[in-house]
Amino acid sequence: MSGASSQQRTIRLVRPQQVDGIGVFSIRDPRRTTFYTFCEIPCAIGGRGFAVHKLGLGQLYHVRIGKRQDCSCECLGFLSRGVCRHVLGLLALSRHGLLGL
After folding, report:
1. Euclidean distance between CA atoms 64 and 79, whole angstroms
2. pTM (predicted TM-score)
3. What confidence tier does 3 reach under pLDDT thresholds 50, 70, 90?
4. What angle do CA 43, 45, 49 make, to 5 degrees?
């Protein structure tokens, strides 16, 4: 399957950040729904930094969002294409004012 429908993703804030700073979001695409915990971390080089962990046996990624030049992620998707679900998801949550205490 190809086309726009195979590329559609949605992000949902499952649990807003609590006093401990940890929140949960999910990313759903046509094949699966994946849950992530996230916590904002200090970022001295521009943008906002987050530690993002895929629930289960997932990897921990350090993700940076902000202006286009400030966005980065350690995942293979970002390293190969320069864009990934983690950056796009956090940017969407930030645009809607859903990140932060």
Report:
1. 13
2. 0.85
3. very low
4. 30
